[in-house]
Amino acid sequence: MAVMFFVAMQGAIQDPHRGQFTEGTGRQCASCHAKTPRAEDNYRAAAHMEKMATGLSKGPLVRYGGITCFSCHRAGGPGHHLAYPVALDRSAVRAMLSEWPTSAKTATQAVRLQMNEYSISLGVTCEFCHAPTDWKLETKPVMTTTRAMETLMNEFPKYFDFANAAAFTCFTCHQGARKVLRHADTR
C-alpha cells in the first residue's frame, strides 16, 4: 500500500503539467524532456502551443469554454501516433461543390469552398447556419458564433509564423463535430 502511494506521488511530481500534454497529444513526457535535438524542438513547439491555448482560452474563446491540447491533438489522432492535429480532407471539401442546393449555386467558388470547409469541419449541413429561403440572411444565432470564429483565425499568427498559422482551420479544433472537445472523456 505504501509503495502504491509513493508511486502515485512520484507520478504527480514527475508530470508538473498534470497530464495536459500527455493526454492531449498522446505523447510521453520524454517527447519534450529527453536530451535530444528532436525533444528540444518538441519542447519549443509545446511552449508556443501552451501559450496559444492559454491566450485563446482567456481571450476570444473565453465565452465558449476555451481549448486544451486535446481539442486539436486528440491524443495523437485516430492511431495515437500523430504529433500534429488531423488535417482537413481538402478533396472532400471540393467534392461537396456538386451537392450544393440549386438556390445557392450563384455563390462564388471561393465562398462555396469556404462554406464546404465549415460543413465538414463542424459536421453540419448548410441549413445549420443558413435559412434555406435566403442564404444571405443572418438571423440564426450560430451566425454570430461563426463571425467570432472567423476573427479567431487572425489570432494564430500571434503565436506561430505565417506558414504554420495558415495550417489552422475550423477542422483543427472541431474535427467534424459542432462541439469542441476539451478532454478525452468529453462526449
Task: Describe the secondary structure blueprint for this structure.
Layout: H1 2-14, H2 20-25, H3 30-33, H4 37-58, H5 69-73, H6 90-95, H7 109-122, H8 141-152, H9 162-165, H10 170-174
Unreliable stretches, pLDDT < 50, 5 or more residues?
A: 1-12
Number of helices: 10
Report the sheet-strand fraction: under 5%
The helix content, as a percent range, equals 40-55%
The string of secondary-structure elements, in order, is HHHHHHHHHH
* Radius of gyration (Å): 20 Å
Count of all domains: 2
Distance between the termini: 34 Å
Quick check: average pLDDT?
A: 84
Shape: elongated
SS elements, strand count: 0
Structural class: mainly alpha
Biggest sheet record: none
Describe the structure.
The protein has 187 residues and is mostly helical. It has 2 domains: 1-85, no CATH class; 87-181, no CATH class. It contains 10 helices and no strands. The protein has helices spanning 2-14, 20-25, 30-33, 37-58, 69-73, 90-95, 109-122, 141-152, 162-165, 170-174. It is elongated, with a radius of gyration of 20 Å. 19% of the residues are buried.
Describe the structure using short key phrases.
mainly alpha, 10 helices, 0% strand, 187 residues
In brief, what are we looking at here?
This protein has ten helices and no strands. It has about 190 residues and is an all-alpha fold.
